[in-house]
Amino acid sequence: MKRRFFLQGISVLTLSVVAGCKQAAALTVEVLKGSVPMQMANKFREQTDQGPVSFVPQPQLKDLFGLLKKWQSQPSSQADLVMIGDFWLHSAIQQELIQPLDPKLWPSWSKLPSRWQNIVRRNAKGEVDPKGQIWAAPYRSGSTVIIYRVDKFKGLGWTPKDWSDLWRPELRHRISLPDQAREVIGLTLKKLGHSYNTADLSKVKNLESELLKLHQNVKLYDSNSYLKPLILGDTWLAVGWSTDISPEVQYQNGLAAVVPQSGTALWSDLWVKPVGVQSSPTATLADNWIDFCWLPQVATQLSLLTATASPMIWGMNPQELPPSLRENPLLFPDPAILDNSDFLEPLSATSVKQYQQLWEKIRRGT
């Protein structure tokens, strides 16, 4: 699964690696480029006296997952922690690329909202399991959102509020959707009152006919460059990710964004420990970094400096959050919307085949 990180206009600094620092570092963390603000990194460095801390940026999440696979055969160069998307956690566990973590070493773990605790509690097959071990530590989160051109909708007299609006006849050949079966079938399932993680699609009444109707309104399927045709006016509405659409990007391009009222897909970037990294019964510098990210002040700073939200803010009193954060509906959506939203959980091989076959049929328009 691809996720674009279009950070234009966001005051986040890219971390660089000092030559020769990686081997000598007391802690090496592989991160997505632009995901860790320099202010956070420097503050953590100031608080530790255990040696240099190195943050190594990679262009895409798939590159970070690729490092885990590489280190399986070349463990000597591995980092202490790696950032991956929650969508890859299932594969990382199944392929034995990572090892379980000990949440008792994190003082702030108990304050992390249960939704994010549950998504990283898995069994040895990588399946979500309330009796499973903790395989990752959630760092930041976002959601799938509707993005639209303000000028085009002024003439229509309404603005998008929920998934059902994508089926309106005024939007024929005017929208773009992600080129991903789970996202498109998922939002249609949500429109029909079902979960993104529905296992048996054959039991969902009218699903195929609804998807075919939606297909008629689609101008293109694109998971990466969908903002460009929207900005140019070739499309009026796009389904994309909250990470891509900061307030600055919206303002500069006459766009607006909304989290669908009936619920949406959630995602979270996670810290994982590669297999081969030595474990310890006491907190390591890696554990300190994980817990540092959850401190209220740090979690708030992360949410303000990037187009994502620390999951820890959901356990805080909203009145303790800055207005610019608690009044941002993309970063801090209504709790009812969040309750109706789903993380994309692993599906069985049978379900995956069912999704793919339906997706291919819809893409043919038949």
From TrEMBL:
Gene Ontology MF terms in the entry: polyamine binding
Coiled-coil stretches noted in the UniProt entry, renumbered to this chain: none
TM annotation in the entry: none
UniProt KW keywords: Periplasm, Signal, Transport
Subcellular location field: Periplasm
A Gene Ontology cellular-component term: periplasmic space
Any one biological process term the GO annotation gives: polyamine transport
UniProt main location, coarse: periplasm
Signal sequence coordinates: 1-24
Protein name: Extracellular solute-binding protein family 1
Annotated source species: Planktothrix paucivesiculata PCC 9631
